[in-house]
Amino acid sequence: MMDSRFLRLDTEDLCALVSEFDSAQTVAEELLAHPDGGPGRHAGPGGRLLELRGDTAVLRDPGGDLCALPASGLYACRVAALTALAANQLLDPGVVTASLIGSGAAGRIQLLVIARSVPDVSHVAVHSPGGPHASPVDSGIAGVLEATGIGLTVAASPEEATFGASLVVVTEPVVSEPCLGHLAPGSVLVNATGRSLREETTGCVSAVYVDDLGLLDAAGSGPGRPGSAAGRVPVPAGGRLGVEADLRQVFTGEHPGRACADHVLLVELLSGAAPGTRLDVALAERIHRTALCHGLGALSPG
C-alpha cells in the first residue's frame, strides 16, 4: 500500500500553476456540476474534502494524500477564473484589450489567468492602487505576457488604465480617484472587490450579471426589478438595475447574455464579499494534480 503524501504549495507555486491549465474551464465545469448551489463547495466527488485551517486550505483526497495551500491564493485563483469565464461569455468575439486595477498576488494571478484563458488579448494596462511597491507586474509577469504576444502598459491612474479597454477588472477599491474613467462601448466590467463600485463608474452600465445567484441573499440584496432573474447585489449600478443572470445560466445558454454590442456589462463577483466561505474543491484538486505533474511545491510523507 502506497504511503500518503503531503504537498505544501505557496503563492508563488500558485502563480506558476495557473499558467499550466485552463482554470476558467475548471470553474465552468464545476458550475455545471452543481447548478443548485453554485461554486465553492467544500466536498467533491469520491470523498475529496477541502477545509479551512486558519489561513490555509487543506485538500484531502480518498487515498489520504493532503495538499495545503494559502486560502487567499486559492480564492484569488477562483476569482481570476470567474473573471476569465465572464470575459469569454460576455465579450463579443474579436481582439480584447484588458485593464486591471489591482495589486499584489491577486493581481498577478489575474494577469496570468487572463493570458492563459482569455483568447485574443492584444494588450493589458495595469494600475496598482497600492502604489508601485505593490504592483502585480514584475519581470516574470512581463515575460509571460511578452511570450504570449500581449503588450503591457503600467498606468499612473485608473483613467489611463481603463481608457479604451474592452475588459476592465477591479480587484481592489480605488479610494483616491473619483471613478475609473469612461468605459468603452461594448466593454465588460468585472467587480471583484467585494464592495459596490461608485455610481460615477457604473452610471453607463446597461446590465448586471453575477457569478452565483445563490449568493444574492448572503450579499444582503433586496428584491429585484420585475422580470429580472433575481434580486439586486448591493447597490449594483447605483441601484438602477436588477440582475439579469448568473454565469452558469449564460454558459449553458439559459440566458442569451449580451443583448447589444454597445452595452457596457457589469459582472459582480459576489463571492468577493466572503472569500473564506467559498473554497473551491474542484479548483483545489486541479491545482494539486497539476503541481504533482510539474513537480512544484514541497512534498513530504503524509
TrEMBL record:
This is Ornithine cyclodeaminase/alanine dehydrogenase, mu-crystallin family. SUPFAM superfamilies: NAD(P)-binding Rossmann-fold domains (SSF51735). InterPro entries: NAD(P)-bd_dom_sf.
